[in-house]
């Protein structure tokens, strides 16, 4: 059974683009679209009458969500849409609303016209703590047919670009998401592995032997990428794959490969900080600078 796709809305152009992107993806996969909004009652200078009673605010919120989803059924015939309106802290509410979903789709920035969440801080917390892939979509994403968010990129290649690092198990969930998405939309995959020469003192006899056996660092990295891709090529034989190995920082190489991409998929290596959570540097760079929607995939169990 295909899991639902959840989309957070807050009334901004970014969240509406994310909603449209999620609707297209749900239609491709035959999945339910779950539209989520989380709000907190507001008081202005202690004068409740200025911001409306709590019941009145909730009516505004529900009306705003209804306005956001209006027309989805006409644009996406056969799409099943449900709504989830939560009350409380936005990060916790969005994670609760996406429980059991296959992905959560959010706009990449902005404060809503509804009593909503500020994605700059909320979105980062959701990404760092989510147990499912989180896709970020900007308002300027345009579809191949001109509809906002109707497709996942306008480049001629239209590839799903995915970063691979380390051993095969380190990127297994990231590659799974990339191949599943590519299969759903009929797109090719470009798998990217970046590498850099370590300092001389970092070499060990074992690593030198492995590099020597492989014929040098470039053949070694190519073999590592091919090994990681092998099970996904077998599982998705109809998905065309380009293997891309390049020397440089992972963030820069991924961003360069993402020009014209439909979607960039990156693994998350979230770290617990003294205050809150912070993302790994590669995911952080791609989120801020990629020209296309970005999917951030958490590590699998035990990773």
TrEMBL record:
Pfam families for the chain: Usp
All copies of domain UspA, residue ranges: 1-138, 161-298
InterPro entries attached to this UniProt entry: Rossmann-like_a/b/a_fold, Universal_stress_UspA, UspA
Protein family: Belongs to the universal stress protein A family.
Protein name: Universal stress protein
Annotated source species: Streptomyces fragilis
